[in-house]
TrEMBL record:
GO terms for biological process: translation. This is Large ribosomal subunit protein bL25 beta domain-containing protein. Pfam families: Ribosomal_TL5_C. Coiled coil: none annotated. One of its GO terms (molecular function) is structural constituent of ribosome.
């Protein structure tokens, strides 16, 4: 078995909701992913690659993953079957961690062979799927999409919360209810945010944060039909053993 990873409120006080501004290159500071081509696919070939410490992967043009978009010769030519080094991918995952891996772009180099200086293709990619073994957690396959400057990609951007240690509602015994763990945006490749940070430091019990409250780069487009959907709220915690009412 395997699986794919991939303000109208009640007494709302000042709420600061913001997304971490992406650096000039989201992949800055991370290793360039090194890959080599594989001419054929299949379970036997993939098993052999994994036994040699490599992870089978595919690099696609965004046109090949968008429904209704005609496939062109250029998009087909940019589809590559490759393998990557397991050790390098594991090192990157330790630095980036899931789920931020699939909202972070990386430079990719496809070379003629392991240790070869002959560069076949290079560019920026966005991981969109990680196929793991459900029992062992071992990475089985990876899927990347080219994320060149000027292109736009649909990205599920993870939501993280800050300010919980000083949140008035939580100090009163309330509970932070996570309603959405990610938000989907249509992002220019050069402005993909690794995460959206929501500041809950001013929320009291009953307060909510909505999708429309999130401030992101103006080039990002929220892919939601209802911007009035809440992202989180502070709910009161029921007493487990309430005191009996006095007669």
């Amino acid at each position: 078995m395997a699986r794919w990873w991939r303000s109208a409120t009640n007494n709302l006080r000042t709420v600061v909701v913001w997304s971490q501004p992406p650096p000039p290159s989201s992949s800055a500071g991370y290793h360039t992913i090194q890959a080599i081509p594989r001419e054929i696919s299949g379970s036997r070939v993939s098993s052999k690659d994994r036994a040699q410490g490599r992870i089978p992967a595919v690099v696609l043009s965004q046109h090949l993953i968008q429904k209704g978009t005609p496939n062109t010769s250029q998009s087909m030519s940019r589809k590559h079957l490759v393998t990557t080094e397991r050790k390098q991918i594991q090192a990157i995952l330790k630095s980036v961690q899931l789920p931020f891996f699939c909202s972070t772009t990386f430079p990719l180099q496809i070379r003629a062979g392991s240790g070869s200086s002959h560069l076949l293709e290079c560019g920026t990619v966005l991981p969109i799927k990680i196929h793991r073994d459900e029992e062992s957690g071992k990475i089985l396959n990876l899927v990347f999409v080219w994320a060149e400057e000027g292109s736009e990609l649909k990205v599920d951007v993870p939501v993280v919360f800050k300010g919980e240690d000083v949140c008035p509602g939580l100090k009163k015994g309330g509970h932070l209810n996570w309603i959405r763990t990610s938000l989907k945006y249509l992002c220019p490749a050069e402005h993909i945010p690794p995460k959206i940070e929501v500041d809950v430091s001013n929320l009291d019990i009953g307060d909510r944060v909505f999708m429309r409250d999130v401030e992101v780069h103006p080039s990002l487009k929220l892919l939601s039909k209802n911007e009035n959907m809440p992202i989180c709220n502070i709910v009161a915690t029921k007493l487990e053993n309430p005191e009996p009412a006095s007669l």
